[in-house]
Specification:
By secondary structure, this protein is mainly α. It has helices spanning 39-45, 78-95, 116-139, 149-158, 161-168; strands spanning 54-56, 62-64. Strands 1-2 form a two-stranded antiparallel sheet. Strand 1 and strand 2 (62-64) form a beta hairpin.
Length: 179
């Protein structure tokens, strides 16, 4: 039966497709004029050996993707693109002299609300603790280091203990008529 219904929709023919209606250029919605439709254009638009990096629509028209051509044989991941962008910005920043100095954020120290006498006693306690640790270090030195430069420096530090003891006995002024 030559006139079967499904024979009319057999698309396995060897002829190139015929263009029934208006053909638009991809992405610009401009009509392709009939005089532009040469065999060369049709073979480029509908060629089976296509460029590997092109956009393909369902109508069979392929066109180059926008943007720079990939340097390798595959597309970059977003992490690789971001790394390239950071490197590019870093190189541009190195080439260009800075127009203004970088912003420095300074934090204010909280105010020390201790009295001067308390600050003095805290400083004496800190010095006493340090001297106690130096004494412990000197007592635990191995015999091979007993006559070394380290031992001499520790002895010089421990001689300051008498001065710290004198400072702790100092009678500090109390101020505001409380003397």
């Amino acid at each position: 039966m030559p006139g079967r219904y499904w024979d009319r929709f057999d698309d396995r023919s060897a002829e190139p497709p015929t263009i029934a209606g208006p053909l638009l250029w991809p992405r610009c919605d401009r009509l392709i004029s009939r005089r532009c439709l040469t065999d060369n254009l049709l073979t480029r638009l509908f060629s089976p050996g296509r460029d590997p990096i092109v956009s393909r629509h369902s109508d069979g028209i392929s066109y180059p993707m926008p943007g720079p051509k990939p340097q390798g044989d595959h597309a970059l991941t977003s992490a690789e693109r971001m790394r390239r962008l950071r490197e590019k910005r870093r190189a541009e920043a190195a080439d260009k002299p800075p127009d203004k100095p970088p912003v420095v954020i300074r934090y204010r120290r909280p105010k020390d609300r201790r009295s001067r006498a308390d600050q003095w006693s805290d400083a004496i306690n800190t010095l006493t603790d340090c001297l106690d640790r130096y004494q412990e270090w000197r007592d635990n030195l191995p015999a091979s280091l007993a006559d070394s430069a380290l031992a001499e420096r520790l002895e010089a530090m421990l001689e300051c203990r008498e001065l710290v003891d004198q400072l702790s006995l100092a009678d500090l002024p109390r101020g505001f008529g409380r003397d």
